[in-house]
Write a structure and sequence with these properties.
about 150 residues, alpha+beta, Arc Repressor Mutant, subunit A, Dna Ligase, domain 1, 2 domains, 3-stranded mixed beta sheet, two-stranded antiparallel sheet, flat, binds zinc ion
């Protein structure tokens, strides 16, 4: 459970210390491999760091994002969720039921390269969420329409 120590040098390079709270939260993000809401992160991290409070989790997540260790996104209904940085991927999210799927980065590689060419930008951390209606919800809707 000391995977947090692998993030310590990055923090130190920016002049910050690794604290038990940051460690516990990074550990949760590192192993989940998914998006978690601050409340979910709080519940999991609390086990390793009992002194952790929910407001601290919010503050720490903002801190980690600012320092490039975590990224946030709005997946379902504008709810902010967090995940560990450095996993290249995108999302499909259903606006009706909130189900979300990961999209492999290769699916967008060509588009991103073309965008970079035409805009002159260099994208560093592109993390895109597409909103739509999943197949299940489409089916339910058409049933109701009959
Ligand atoms: Zn760990
Ligand atoms: Zn993501
Ligand atoms: Zn759905």
């Amino acid at each position: 459970m000391t995977c947090g120590s692998e993030y310590a040098p990055g923090l130190r390079a920016r002049g910050f210390r690794m604290t038990p709270q940051r460690m516990a939260i990074l550990h949760v993000l590192h192993h989940s491999g998914a998006h978690l809401s601050p409340t979910e992160i709080y519940k999991k991290a609390h086990r390793d760091a009992p002194s952790l409070t929910e407001p601290t989790v919010y503050r720490t997540l903002e801190f980690l994002e600012k320092n490039g260790l975590a990224i946030s996104s709005q997946v379902d209904n504008r709810k902010l969720v967090y995940e560990i940085a450095g996993r290249n991927h995108h999302h499909l999210s259903c606006q009706s039921c909130g189900a979300s799927f990961e999209v492999q980065p290769e699916a967008l590689d060509g588009i991103i390269r073309r965008l970079e060419k035409s805009s002159g930008y260099r994208f560093i951390n592109s993390h895109v969420t597409f909103f739509g209606i999943c197949p299940k919800c489409q089916k339910n809707k058409s049933k109701k329409g009959d």
